[in-house]
Amino acid sequence: MHWEFVDGNTAISATTRKRIRSHVARGKNAGRRLTRPSRLSKAHGEPPTYIRIPALLQSHETNEDQEIVCDIKRPITSGLIFPVEMEPQTRDIAHKVVEASRHLLRTIHLINGRLAGANSTSDDTVAAVVGMVHYERHQGQFGRALIHTRGLRQMADLRGGVLKLGCELARKVFLCDMECSFQLGCAPLFSIEEVDAVTFSTGEFELRRIAATPEAGPCDLNTCLATLLRHGRDLALVYNAIGAGQQPKLTYYAHFDLVLSFGYRLLKFSPLQGPRPASHLDDVLHLGLIIFLCTFIRRLDRGIADNNLLARLLGSVAEKVETDRGTQEALLWALLVGTASIFQRDIPEWLTAKAATLIQSLGLATWEDTLGLLHRYPWVNALHNEPARGLWHRVAPSYDTWLLN
Length: 405
Description:
Helix content is about 60%, strand content about 5%. By secondary structure, it is mostly helical. The chain has two domains: about 90-190, no CATH class; about 200-405. Strands 1-2 form a two-stranded antiparallel ribbon.
């Protein structure tokens, strides 16, 4: 032990006092391990409502050397500082966004750690990435969702194919892939053959439980689209039978098997950013079938995501003037289906105006007449009737006015 000398004639600083205490305790505590409460545990303890701070106040009423202690209320905040004053409600929303961002960054950090580990393609890791993609879908961040879905494609390939993931995980991956394709217009990352290998048996069984009555489709319709239209009508028939109490509700797996099988066949016909069909009727029906299917694709809060690309494409085909009755009927069906689907939250003015024009042009005097026309196409009463009827009553002329004209 070395010796140190302290000058006792001068003021002893805090540093010197600390060195003296350390020097004295060195011999007494030699070989012993000191256990102190960690700072981390203290940080997570309940914060006191008030804290006491020393304040040196000089006034003619107090002595100069007297230490005064003041009680002040402790501000408990997230530490977020805004450059301008905000309303309390807006500030609360901003704080929630900061908190959500923190959890998202933590999630990404944990997933990256898994991907760098030995079990980078395990079911747990795949499920973690799937959960993150579904959260991004919920937030409308489909560009990021597509990037991570590509990662899921690579993970599935490393596992030896998507079937190695198990049916439940595979369904969730397919749903992410399909909605990214609908939202961004790109081709899907997985094939219809891969989807059928998981969903074909259940979906085909459910469709065959009800004998669909053949319906005559519009004339001059593309052969492939005619098959898709019949597929959509059969799908609607299943859900209408459930709504009428004629058959039990579908299981979780059966529902998604029907949705995924139909969606991938629509994408196989043409992705939204691919070349559009030359026929106006084919274009309208393809867009309408995708809009119909979007009614069944829900976010985490059970809402339906807006789709700007699909809305823009439908608006573009709606601008074309067609005198053909079959095309007018198909377009009116697509517009009214949209009120319960991608236009559920906000119906644009152009859609309202076009629907009014088509109703008058087709001579639909009552809602019952319109509903009879709509049932020639995929239409689920429990989902589509109420919003479509609301729009119809807003834009259609009254029956008395109709008779006078």
